[in-house]
UniProtKB/TrEMBL annotation:
PANTHER family xref list: SODIUM_BILE ACID COTRANSPORTER 7, SOLUTE CARRIER FAMILY 10 MEMBER 7
Gene Ontology, cellular component aspect: plasma membrane
Superkingdom of origin organism: Bacteria
Protein name: Bile acid:sodium symporter
InterPro entries in UniProt: Na+/solute_symporter_sf (IPR038770), Put_Na-Bile_cotransptr (IPR016833)
Spans traversing the lipid bilayer: 21-39, 45-67, 79-100, 112-131, 143-166, 178-198, 219-238, 244-263
A Pfam family recorded for this sequence: SBF_like
Transmembrane helix as UniProt keyword: yes
Keywords: Membrane, Transmembrane, Transmembrane helix
Amino acid sequence: MARLANRRAAGRKHQGGAADWFLIGMVGAVVLASIAPNLGRTGGLLHLDVVGDIGIFLIFFLHGMGLSTDSLKHGASRWKLHLVVQISTFALFPLWWLLLNALVGRFIPHDLLLGFFYLAVLPSTVSSSVAMTAMARGNVAAAVLNATLSTLLGVVLTPLLASLVFSGAADGQAMDVGATMLKVAKMLLLPFVLGQLLRPLVGHWFQKIKPWTTKVDRAVILLLVLSSFSDSVADGLWSKHGLGLMAMTAVGVCLFLFPLLWLTKRVARAFNFPVEDEIVAVFCGSKKTLASGVPMAKLLFSGNPSMGVLVLPIMFYHQLQLFVCSVMAKRYAERDKTPVPEGKPG
């Protein structure tokens, strides 16, 4: 037990350090794009539009290699918990956006409003959902299952849901669902399936180099952020909106995270879930993925000069959910000191 505790403590320390440099990198990408947008814009000196396509393919290939679908075979009998998490992720969030849009949508810039809808239809995270559940001494097996299922569903549901609201390009034409799903199949599903097919052959080797693949994954995300913001700055992002856009985004993500945390907890208790399952419902049902969100946005909305604004909510939400859920996980973990099983099937 002591060895396991030390390993988890070391993992949390490593995760915290990685999160720190990643946050600094995102801020740096925004600053660099603001100072020298011609470096990263489409057709710019760095040709990040070409690098971005390769990076998106690589990210979803790595996701396919790293995601163990064996977890879907276990814990299937906890169907109420799984429904709560997936409905929260793909239904409650969009419904909450509709409510906020009706109340305050007229005060929010149109592109930022669409960015919040994109945030609302994203799948849950994998690594941080499971890590927070483990830290809180919750049902880790159920967290792995729900995070995996959310990722698989998100590859299809996120583009479909986004097509209901988004304009597909700067000319304002409606998103072509057929063309969108073809791009999804080519750039998201294909590399993901290839990764899954190769996993039985090289999965053991992949686990050994996973810390390095995580760095590659995050480096690609930073390049995509730089590219997105460079296009937006070149299109007049700051001259049109100024720093008020940042303040509005910060308030907006709070209006998403805190109500959904409260709501998922209420629903879990209404179903009389044990506290270990409540933790899964709260963490997996309220989280949104930056790792898939930025690459998917770059694919779905390529050519849109407002890309930087569209991904701003998920960038802010990512940092807020890590901080708030870390605090909550520590409080959950202190509820007692007795061992908690890491989830039993059924």
